[in-house]
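Students often ask why inverse folding is considered easier than folding. One informal answer: many sequences map to the same fold, so there is more than one right answer. In these notes we will look at a single instance of the problem. The structure comes first.
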């Protein structure tokens, strides 16, 4: 680690922190991938054909020869996937309904008519429980065919969001500074994706909730988790995505980890996202530190920390309402480190070099000199490195 600003001789403390605001919620996670497709016409498992008012199989006549293809009957979701019906030759339009009862007396969500047989149901706001769906098609401007068989699916309980998050609107900013050689050249960066970033560093209570471990050197539920490697931070992000029914952003493992920046799941911010958020995004006041030109107003650092971490959110927030981006603990970000990267990085959505030996760290720590807490400052270490000055905060893409 480029510890130019760090003194790693701080004392330890075991002061107990307050309980966090974590909601005690049931976590029921179920497979979120689309179930396998059923063969066409697999009307072998309609929902409760004995139920009163259930009309049984639809009258199948072209172009009403249609059936749900995915999700198959009984599928469980913690978020709603795309629904797909069988494709019907000559069909000009398809329709879909979702109901809480298999007789479809109350329609909870409907796509009355569209050309595609792939239905985007992401706008359906369904509570946890059992649901039913069916579809139909129409040839040209003629009559609608009959409704398909009814298939069931269920929505799992979702974990109430574990992290407080701050919305960061996409935009353009000047990244870097003239202070240090690896912060040059100052260059224009455009981020094209809105994203959410954790308002606070991940706390020890949050880490324990997801990972079941207590790795930190300092102890306190509301203190930032530290002594976690980059690999472990990535693991946390994927694990939390699974718990909350989001698409995991990472695949692969070790140094072969690949990120999908378009996935909805948690991930480490890119270095550019981190700096943009630290600078206050579109609301930037142009400060040296995240939210102020006075380091002690926004950061726990060498001169005021008492050689220890502090509860997150106990200094002033930055322009966007994000805390501790300067100081408290260094934060792992996604990018590989390359001191010359800024001279060749793309102007849009830079995500770091393709390979490297070190991952970037940002923001300085309780053990850092003020200069390391600057929003433009860059540091790095090997991704397996653990230290009581290093933690992280996740981000995720909004779409
Ligand atoms: Ca920090």
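Output (designed amino acids):
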């Amino acid at each position: 680690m480029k510890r130019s600003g760090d003194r790693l001789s701080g004392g330890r403390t075991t002061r107990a922190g307050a309980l966090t605001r974590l909601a005690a919620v049931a976590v029921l996670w179920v497979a979120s991938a689309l179930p396998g497709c059923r063969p066409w016409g697999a009307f072998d498992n309609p929902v409760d054909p004995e139920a009163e008012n259930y009309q049984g199989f639809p009258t199948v006549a072209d172009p009403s020869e249609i059936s749900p293809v995915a999700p198959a009957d009984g599928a469980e979701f913690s978020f709603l996937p795309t629904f797909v019906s069988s494709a019907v030759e000559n069909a000009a339009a398809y329709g879909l309904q979702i109901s809480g009862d298999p007789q479809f007396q109350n329609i909870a969500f409907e796509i009355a008519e569209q050309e595609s047989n792939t239905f985007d149901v992401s706008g359906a706001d369904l509570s946890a429980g059992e649901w039913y769906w069916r579809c139909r098609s129409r040839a040209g401007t003629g009559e609608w065919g009959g409704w398909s068989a009814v298939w069931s699916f269920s929505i799992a309980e979702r974990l109430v969001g574990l992290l407080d998050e701050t919305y960061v609107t996409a935009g353009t900013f000047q990244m870097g500074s003239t202070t240090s050689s690896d912060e040059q050249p100052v260059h224009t960066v455009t981020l094209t994706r809105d994203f959410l970033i954790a308002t606070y560093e991940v706390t020890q209570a949050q880490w324990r909730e997801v990972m079941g471990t207590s790795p930190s050197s300092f102890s306190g539920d509301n203190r930032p988790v530290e002594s976690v490697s980059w690999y472990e931070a990535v693991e946390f992000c994927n694990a939390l995505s699974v718990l909350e029914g989001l698409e995991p952003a990472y695949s692969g493992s070790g140094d072969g980890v690949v990120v999908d920046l378009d996935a909805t799941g948690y991930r480490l911010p890119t270095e550019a996202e981190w700096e943009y958020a630290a600078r206050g995004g579109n609301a930037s006041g142009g400060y040296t530190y995240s939210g102020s030109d006075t380091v002690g107003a926004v950061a726990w650092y060498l001169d005021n920390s008492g050689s220890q971490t502090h509860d997150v959110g106990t200094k002033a927030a930055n322009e966007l309402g994000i805390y501790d981006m300067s100081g408290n603990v260094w934060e792992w970000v996604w990018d590989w480190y390359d001191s010359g990267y800024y001279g060749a990085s793309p102007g849009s959505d830079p995500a770091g070099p393709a390979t490297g030996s070190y991952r970037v760290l940002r923001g300085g720590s309780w053990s850092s000199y003020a200069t390391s807490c600057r929003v433009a400052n860059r540091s790095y270490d090997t991704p397996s490195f653990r230290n009581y000055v290093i933690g992280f905060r996740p981000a995720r893409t909004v779409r």
